[in-house]
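Box 3.1 A note on notation
Throughout this textbook, protein chains are presented in two layers. The first layer is the amino acid sequence; the second is a token string describing backbone geometry. Keep the layers aligned when reading.
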Amino acid sequence: MLHEGNPGFEFMDEVVPQEGELVLTKEVNSAFIGTDLEERLRSTGATTVVIAAFTTDHCGSTTVRMSGNLGFETWYVGDACSTYDREGPDGEVFPAELVHRTALASVHGEFADVITTDEAIKRLG
């Protein structure tokens, strides 16, 4: 659904990049794999990575975990993320809100600080 050429690949009107804004196209669930994101961050001296993602438990979680493992201070902006309902191997369906909350809980304090948008704005000052 999100592969290039499919409708889900295109930017939504609300998030069309501004002129000159960096756009990385990834082919797997981590923004660090197969891109030059780490090199770009390090070349600017960045030490903190702020992540908002779709989906919380897949692309977001994988990028958050890698960011933390690479030594970046990582903020995962929980209220700027979302996901889908997920079906377990036994057929049980887990509601998106539960999946979202448990995905945030699984990275908080180990790989990232899970914070709100308001908190991110305050920290960025």
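The first strand starts at residue 48 and ends at 51. Helices lie at 37-43, 56-69, 96-107, 117-124.
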